[in-house]
Amino acid sequence: MVKRRKKYTPEGKVSILKRHLVDKVPVSDVCDQHGLSPTVFYRWQKQFFENGPSAFVSKRKSKLTLQERRIQQLEEKLATKNEVVSELMEAHLKLKKNLGEI
After folding, report:
1. Helix (H) and strand (E) counts for the chain?
2. Which of 26, 36, 43, 99 could form a disulfide with 31 if both were Cys (CB 3.0 to 4.6 A apart)?
3. 56, 47 in Cβ contact below 8 A?
4. Between vectors from CA 76 to CA 92 and to CA 54, what angle results, nearest 5°?
5. What is the rounded CA–CA span in Å between residue 12 and residue 40?
């Protein structure tokens, strides 16, 4: 029988660490209750102390991040378009002046 790996949310990891750190439950008891290896527990604890809860945030790109990137790309494209239109208008005005139309 193959054991499935459990996936813990950042909040879940923090609550497990909290049981040991705040509630003073021994590491061995916490690990037994959650089916964790003490090595995993201490790795989470090290990450938590080094980075705080942000250490457990998934590294996958969220939909919001993809939308933000798309918005940024479109804003850059719009800015480039505006620059080109501005240059063309300037060239058009110079040409009209040279031809005496203005």
Report:
1. 4, 0
2. 36
3. yes
4. 170
5. 14
